[in-house]
């Protein structure tokens, strides 16, 4: 359902997401709302983004306190410095950022230099997420990913002078990454001055160039069993270096777990700005149009109201989200929390599945708390389906 309705959240969001959708080139595995080049549209997009932020903020009679901000994309490290500086001045005049403890910017290592780092630091960005993905230049090239391994090594030397809370993203399961190269990548990561690491499983999204290459057989993917073994080994390697798993894809040094992502997993309200950005008000989800032209036309309204779809989350969906998001985290699912959410028959059915999943090595159950094993994490969808059938 597309609506033009906008209302203040019942609970004001304390977490903001801002989407900068432009990239130099589109990576072959990417299905994000991201546009190659589009230099001519960027100034206008920036203006609409500012208008959208001001429109939302002025619904409140006071400046809403914000705990975390995440600037994602696209490639926000390409956001021109005068504009991102203006973005932060609008954010500071629209919200109360005095206790905002985590402000993250996603970046491509090829873009990072000391001038940018200095500017980002000066406007309040205190966490940098660096998209490494692989250290194999040939693999990166084949995937149309523009940075090289040398960019990453350079960033690891200069970034900590300005921003000490560094995170890196890696993709597990990329085609043509040898076991030796993966081991080298993890060994390098454990020597970098990072506080956080995200390791995502490669997902093949329909209609991407990677999808067509796999379908044609010109690219072959590693098999699932190999990935499960590698995932398990990597967790152990990272933990030996003090980078400890706290969620399926996320690892951190003590005290550096991502506050922003934790808010998503705990189903706290958040507000997203920009094309394709989603928001959650505690009971429903709003998703901005992912059409760049429609998004830009929002500025023609007296107030900048962005076309968006609105999905009310049913109690059943809320339950499934709670179950999935709890299981994704190391702390697991508290079975007591399900007593209030399931009817007695459903609870019995769920509990009956647990010994079966445990004997398959997918979960552990201790004191009414269900946790995924490493194998269970790698096969999370299967576990959730069996618990929630
Ligand atoms: S840089 Fe990120 S958003 Fe841009 S195309 Fe690559 S994966 Fe997609």
Could you characterize the architecture of this molecule?
There is one protein chain. The protein has helices at 42-57, 81-94, 114-123, 137-142, 149-158, 179-191, 209-216, 224-240, 259-265, 292-297, 315-328, 335-339, 344-359, 374-378, 380-387; strands at residues 2-3, 15-20, 22-23, 35-36, 68-73, 102-107, 127-133, 165-172, 196-201, 244-247, 250-252, 271-273, 278-280, 284-288, 308-312, 333-334, 363-366, 369-372. With 389 residues, it is of the alpha/beta class. It folds into two domains: 2-265, pyruvate-formate lyase- activating enzyme (Alpha-Beta Horseshoe); 315-387, Arc Repressor Mutant, subunit A. It has a nine-stranded mixed β-sheet with strand order 10-11-9-8-7-6-5-2-12, with helices on both faces. A four-stranded antiparallel β-sheet has the order 1-15-14-13, with no helix packed on it. Strands 16-18-17 form a three-stranded antiparallel β-sheet. The two termini are 28 Å apart. The chain binds iron/sulfur cluster.
CATH class of the largest domain: Alpha Beta
CATH fold category name of the largest domain: pyruvate-formate lyase- activating enzyme
Helix residue percentage: 25-40%
Main-sheet strand order equals 10-11-9-8-7-6-5-2-12
Number of strands: 18
Shape verdict: globular
The CATH superfamily of the largest domain is known as: tm_1862 like domain
Bound molecules: iron/sulfur cluster
End-to-end separation in angstroms reads: 28 Å
Sequence stretches where pLDDT stays below 50 over 5 or more residues: 1-5
Strand content: 15-25%
- Rg from C-alpha positions? 21 Å
CATH hierarchy: architecture of the largest domain? Alpha-Beta Horseshoe
Please tally the helical runs, counting DSSP H or I stretches of 4 or more residues.
15
Largest sheet: 9 strands, mixed
Q: Label the structural class.
A: alpha/beta
């Amino acid at each position: 359902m597309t609506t033009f309705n906008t209302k203040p959240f019942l609970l004001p969001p304390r977490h903001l997401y801002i989407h900068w959708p432009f990239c130099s080139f589109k990576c072959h595995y990417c299905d994000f709302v991201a546009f190659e080049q589009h230099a001519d549209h960027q100034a206008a997009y920036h203006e609409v983004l500012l208008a959208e932020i001001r429109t939302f903020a002025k619904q409140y009679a006071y400046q809403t306190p914000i705990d975390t901000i995440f600037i994602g994309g696209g490639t926000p490290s390409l956001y021109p410095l005068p504009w991102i500086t203006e973005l932060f001045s609008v954010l500071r005049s629209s919200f109360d950022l005095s206790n905002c403890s985590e402000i993250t910017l996603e970046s491509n290592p090829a873009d990072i230099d000391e001038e940018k780092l200095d500017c980002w630091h000066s406007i309040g960005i205190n966490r940098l997420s660096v998209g490494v993905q692989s250290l194999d230049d040939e693999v990166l090239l084949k995937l149309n990913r523009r940075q090289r391994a040398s960019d990453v090594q350079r960033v690891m030397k200069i970034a900590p002078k300005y921003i000490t809370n560094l995170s890196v993203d890696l993709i597990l399961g990329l085609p043509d990454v040898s076991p030796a190269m993966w081991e080298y990548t993890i060994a390098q990561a454990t020597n970098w001055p990072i506080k956080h690491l995200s390791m995502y499983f490669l997902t093949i999204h329909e209609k991407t160039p990677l999808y067509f290459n796999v379908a044609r057989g010109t690219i072959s993917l590693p098999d699932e069993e190999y990935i499960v073994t590698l995932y398990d080994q990597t967790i152990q390697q990272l933990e030996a270096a003090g980078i400890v798993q706290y969620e399926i894809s996320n690892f951190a040094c003590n005290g550096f777990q991502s506050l922003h992502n934790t808010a998503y997993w705990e189903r706290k309200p958040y507000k997203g700005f920009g094309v394709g950005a989603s928001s959650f008000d505690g009971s429903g989800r709003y998703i901005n149009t992912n059409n760049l032209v429609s998004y830009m036309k929002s500025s023609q309204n007296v107030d900048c109201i962005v076309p968006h779809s609105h999905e009310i989350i049913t109690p059943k969906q809320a339950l499934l989200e709670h179950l999935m998001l709890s299981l994704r985290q190391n702390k697991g699912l508290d079975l007591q929390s399900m007593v209030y959410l399931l009817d007695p028959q459903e609870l019995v059915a769920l509990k009956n599945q647990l010994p079966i999943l445990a004997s398959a090595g997918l979960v552990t159950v201790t004191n009414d708390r269900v946790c995924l094993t490493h194998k269970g994490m790698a096969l999370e969808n299967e576990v959730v389906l069996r618990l929630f059938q």
